[in-house]
Amino acid sequence: MYNDVIKEMEKYAEENSVPIMQKRSMTFLCKFIKKNNIKRILEIGTAIGYSAINMALVDENIEIVSIERDQDKYIEAIKNIKKCNLDKRISLILGDALNLELEGKYDMIFIDAAKGQYLNFFNKYKENLVDDGFVISDNIEFHGHVENYDKIENRNLRQLVGKLIKYIEFLKENDEYETKFYKVGDGLAITYKKGEVDE
C-alpha cells in the first residue's frame, strides 16, 4: 500500500514541479534515523508529505510535526498522509515556520524549505533540539549552484545561493556545533552539538 502511494507522489511531484527529496538522499536519511534511534522529528517544509511519510515508515514509534506554508501543498500532504494511515503520527501545521512558536523537544530537526532562510530556521528552532539531537539540512549543494556561485548570472538566484553559502560557512565555523557534509543526492549536512554525540 505504502509503495503505491509513494510512487503516486513521485509521479505527482514530477508532473507538477514539486521539489521532493531525491531517492538517494531519502534512503540515506531513513537509514540515519534508524541507526540513531530517532523518534521525534520536526520537519520544516512538508511539500506534499513525501519525506514525512518515508521517515514515519522507518519505525512505528516515530512521531513527526511538519510545517508547510503553501496551502495547496499542505492540502495535498494531508491527503497523502491519510492514504497511508499515518495521520496519528504525522501532525501538519499550515504556516510560516519563522512566525510560529513551537514547544517541545525533538531528536531531529529536518530543514527542507526556503533555501534562503536556512540560517533563520536553524537559529529559531535549535532550542527545540534535545542535547544529543541532530539538525539535518537538505539541498546543501543546491543543484551545483553553490559550487558554481561565480557563474550565476541571475540576480535573484545569486542572492539565494549567497544566503545558502553563508549558512554553510556558519555551520563550518560554529563553536557550539559540529557538522558533517555528505555528497548524497543534492547534498546533506548533519549537525549536532559538540561533545554530545558519540562518533
Structure write-up:
With about 200 residues, the protein is of the alpha/beta class. It has one domain (about 1-195): Vaccinia Virus protein VP39 (Rossmann fold). The protein is about 35% helix and about 20% strand. The chain has six helices and seven strands; from the N terminus they run H-H-E-H-E-H-E-E-H-E-H-E-E. The chain is globular and about 45 Å long. The chain starts with a helix and ends in a 6-residue tail after the last strand. The mean pLDDT is about 90.
Secondary structure layout:
Layout: H1 2-15, H2 23-35, E1 40-44, H3 50-56, E2 63-68, H4 71-83, E3 90-94, E4 106-111, H5 118-125, E5 129-138, H6 155-173, E6 177-182, E7 188-193
Parallel strand pairs: 1-2, 1-4, 2-3, 4-5
Antiparallel strand pairs: 5-7, 6-7
Main β-sheet, spatial strand arrangement: 3-2-1-4-5-7-6
| Major sheet details | 7 strands, mixed
The average pLDDT value, as a whole number, equals: 92
Please give the share of residues in helix: 25-40%
What order do the SSEs take from the amino end to the carboxyl end, as H and E? HHEHEHEEHEHEE
**CATH class designation:** Alpha Beta
Number of strands: 7
What's the alpha carbon Rg, rounded to whole Å? Answer: 16 Å
User: Number of helix segments?
Assistant: 6
Coarse shape = globular
Features:
Rossmann fold; alpha/beta; single chain; 6 helices; 199 residues; 7 strands
